[in-house]
Target: ATP-dependent DNA helicase RecQ
Amino acid sequence: MTLDSISILRQYWGFESFRPLQEEIIQSVISGKDTLALLPTGGGKSICFQVPALMMEGICIVVTPLIALMKDQVAHLRKNGIQAVAIYSGMKKREVDITLDNCVYGKIKFLYLSPERLYSDLVRERIRFMNVNLFAIDEAHCISQWGYDFRPPYLELAKLKELHPKIPFLALTATATERVITDIQQKLNFPKENVFVKSFLRDNLAYMAIEEEDKMGRMVRIIHKLGGSGIVYVRNRRETQEIARILINNGIASDYYHAGLSGQERDQKQDAWMTNAIRVIVATNAFGMGIDKPDVRFVIHLDLPDSLEAYYQEAGRAGRDGKKAYPVILYQENDKKKLVDTLQASFPDIPFIQQTYHYLCNHFQVPYGAGEGLTLDFDVVTFAKKYQLPLIPVMNAMKFLERDGWLTLSEAVTIPSRFKFEIDSTELYKIQVQYAKYDKLIKAILRTYGGVFENYILINEYEFANKLGIPYGRVVELLKSLEALEIASYLPSTDSPQLTFLQNRVDYKHLYIDHIFIRDRHRVKEGEVNGMIDYIEKAHCRSQSLLLYFGEKNAGFCQVCDLCLIRLHKENQRAQIKEEIKSSLLAAPKRLHDLVESLTLGTEKRRIEIIRDLLDAEVIRLEENLYSWNTLF
Model:
């Protein structure tokens, strides 16, 4: 590896050496090869594109569906003195335009994009004029319809190569089966196979799946016993609050987290957990992506995950410091039925999907023949209640509408308020003289932020309210007035998911839905559900079962999961019972009843089972109803 890569790693991240496979992946990218890298959760995927991008002239374009992770990485890069920007759902056209200009003409090194943005001709055309050095595709399993988290906008990624044919793809993911690995490379048009796979083995994780009628009591006992911080995953928002309350009542500092909270609330709760102000966060699966907390000692699932891919990702948030940690599933027999029922609800029929589209257009009052490019805040729960529709089928209907190119729906994430002056400094001074009520606010903005005439800047209305000694509402009123006068652009904060119509409204009866894809997707999901149930019911070793699922065929027993511990206990007990039998029979031959009664370990059934095994192996003999030890052994 060149000294450049090591010096970059040391300068920006403070590490003296790379983790396993990082060097090889970076070298592959530097040599211009399309590359697929599979690194487990916490394996350092971002380093694999950030280091080579800094080694080369030009800009790295990073595609990720996780807006929260995108914002977090941009903030970290900027903190380290690296110029990075992001474009995601919720930004206005003018804001996007300025950001893209900076990428074409400025010194930006990283442009983060949500995949939905690649539907835009504006974005694709500007990328054509950028000096791109690498396309990094995070969560690359989303491109495969055989993957557990297929995202239709990822199908647009291959078009990036049309813009810059010689620039390599680096596709990254933490979870992919053999079929998905092949599909990712085909969808991205790799000229030849080029895959780096780090073993999915996490040998410090003691996986457990325990059938338990009293989930709450068992959960509390586990948390008290293990100590340290952890995550409890549940399926719905209501349960997050209920479980957090139970933990608090049992003396465990806890809080709840779900996508329905405001951005400020989510940030506060996450920070409290990250800094160990609370021990346990009870959350839906909206929590955890991109969070790197090393000292998580346990991850408890109170509901069965939808797939082993999802479970591996969520369980993998435990033990990133390399120390022993415990991913635990607590389940009841009825949970398997719930999983199957959810599967069926996830595949609504074609008329229901068409009807959902019709209601969406009515909900936003979109006229026939109009609506293309329209982006709006969207609350799926409110929508489903308004039209008395079942929530799970509605959410999945929208995924199929997205796949067929009718709309896109971004994740819920807080987008801060943004502000930009639309007139030059001379004209602005005239406004300050003419309108005294704006003067103090304008001065405060100019003193606080640079570049506010050229770019949108992130602003905090509460901060200005404190500085100026006026109410928050008055600050917002003044900012809106500046926009009404066309002096400035003001984009208030939002934390709602963003729905974008990609085509003009059509009559729902003529709406095309790919029923073949839905059928194939149903088969994929059915296989995932069966894989999850087999993991619970049929595994001989939890870790081995996961590794086999991901194609590692030579995996041995981990010796630390619940099944391995049970097996080891039985093996140790068997050896001890065998020694007891030997001692008893060497003292004197015995009838079966007397021999069984002379033993102290195991149940009667277990003792008889071992006696029969020893008899079959001729380790003991049976003559005239008396058992004796074969002295050859």
